[in-house]
Design brief:
Layout: H1 12-27, H2 32-35, H3 43-52, H4 72-83, H5 87-98, H6 101-106, H7 109-121, E1 126-129, E2 145-149, E3 152-163, E4 170-177, E5 180-187, E6 193-196, E7 207-218, E8 222-223, H8 229-265, E9 267-268, E10 271-272, H9 279-306, H10 312-337, H11 347-358, H12 365-380
Parallel strand pairs: 1-4
Antiparallel strand pairs: 2-3, 3-7, 4-5, 5-8, 6-7, 9-10
GO molecular function, one term: acyl-CoA dehydrogenase activity
Domain Acyl-CoA oxidase/dehydrogenase middle: 127-200
Domain Acyl-CoA dehydrogenase/oxidase N-terminal: 17-121
């Protein structure tokens, strides 16, 4: 029986998950800098993540997972720990869930049994194909097509900026089918599918375009009902969006830890930097902002674990708040460290680059705020 004092304390099962994630992050600290500069899956990170068995959290228990269903709070707590140490590790963990969630919710038993245990063990790398060269946030404008013909699904299109692209073992591809949108599982070795890597971002990422030229897969590879794939994508975003906030909180905490360590030991004008000028104010504001972001993130993640779709507004708020705070915290931390925060290859410089994309992927700040404003006005009517 919980008490009032327990109200803002993580239950034990989440504390256990948190401890395991922190252990994994510490275990990967020696390879984090190398992995975070890679545009391909780092084999050592993959091996260590598999050994930790934490990827089981993003798969339902019936198919080799940890919990009965994917738990947003557990995913968020893990990403907070991993995001503090290694963006590559954090992305690998998260994408196993993001790329496969639709299968767990809407896939046939055959698809679930074939792919989800492999996802949990990291025997198969997952990816989700939404974005296109001319389509970003406005997914209903996508041009990829899905046509059913003679017991096959024919997929044509060009997906762009796909995380795990080029290294994934399968892609969950969203395309137009009739008047709706269908989600289709396409194994990476399917004839007609090829990957290209025309882009890389400021914080190197496993990223590629995925071109589908008359790709044929069995009709059973459709995930869910024909034309109903958009609902599966929304369910995926509702479940995992808040976990981006967790990773952002972890990144911000890591940046502040670096700044505090520097400020405690660096001296100038007869005092430590921690007591000089505006530095104490910078540090205090960072601490305060992180705690606010963490509180909102945990609340939103717990609500998402209960009902992801009904609480998407909270997940969206947490995602915006935490990623914007991470950007300001890491910026202040670099300012505290001065030239040492700018050194290429240093942790603060790496965190600075990694923080920037968080405000764009899985819903940019502006798009989310527009959606939240519409909901606020609609609900007030």
């Amino acid at each position: 029986m919980s008490t009032e004092q327990d109200l803002f304390t993580l239950p034990q099962r989440y504390l256990d998950v948190q401890a395991a994630a922190r252990d994994l992050a510490a275990d990967c600290s020696d390879i984090a800098a190398r992995a975070d500069e890679s545009d391909s899956i780092d084999p050592d990170v993959r091996k260590r993540l598999a050994a930790s068995r934490l990827a089981e959290i993003v798969v339902p228990a019936a198919y080799g997972g940890r919990f009965d269903r994917v738990d947003s709070l557990a995913v968020t707590v893990v990403r907070e720990a991993l995001g503090a140490e290694c963006a590559h590790l954090d992305s690998m963990f998260a994408m196993q869930g993001i790329g496969s969630y639709g299968i767990g919710v809407g896939g046939s038993e055959k698809l679930k049994e074939e792919w989800l245990p492999k996802v949990a063990r990291l025997d198969a790398i997952a990816a989700l194909g939404l974005t296109e060269p001319g389509v970003g946030s406005d997914l209903k404008a996508l041009t990829t097509t899905v046509v059913e013909r003679d017991g096959k699904l024919i997929v044509n299109g060009h997906k762009s900026f796909i995380t795990n692209g080029g290294d994934a073992d399968f892609y969950s591809i969203l395309g137009r089918e009739g008047d709706g949108y269908s989600l289709v599982l396409v194994p990476a070795d399917t004839p007609g599918l090829r990957t290209e890597r025309p882009h890389q971002i400021i914080a190197p990422h496993v990223l590629s375009d995925v071109v589908l030229d008359n790709v044929e897969v069995p009709v059973d590879n459709r995930i869910g009902e024909p034309g109903k794939g958009f609902a599966l994508v929304l369910a995926t975003l509702a479940t995992f969006r808040v976990s981006v906030a967790g990773a952002a909180v972890g990144l911000a905490q890591a940046a502040l830890d670096e700044a505090v360590a520097h400020a405690r030991t660096r001296e100038g004008f007869g005092v430590t930097l921690a007591r000089l000028g505006s530095v104490p104010e910078h540090l205090a504001k960072c601490w305060m902002d992180i705690e606010m972001a963490r509180s909102l993130t945990y609340r939103a993640a717990a609500a998402s674990a209960r009902d992801a779709r009904a609480n998407l507004h909270l997940s969206s708020m947490a995602k915006v708040a935490a990623t914007e705070i991470a950007a300001s915290v890491v910026d202040r931390s670099v300012q505290v460290a001065g030239r040492f925060g700018l050194v290429r290859g240093g942790k603060l410089e790496r965190l600075y680059r990694e923080a920037r994309p968080m405000r764009i992927y899985e819903g940019s700040t502006e798009v989310i705020l527009d959606s939240l404003a519409k909901q606020l006005v609609r609900d007030a009517g």
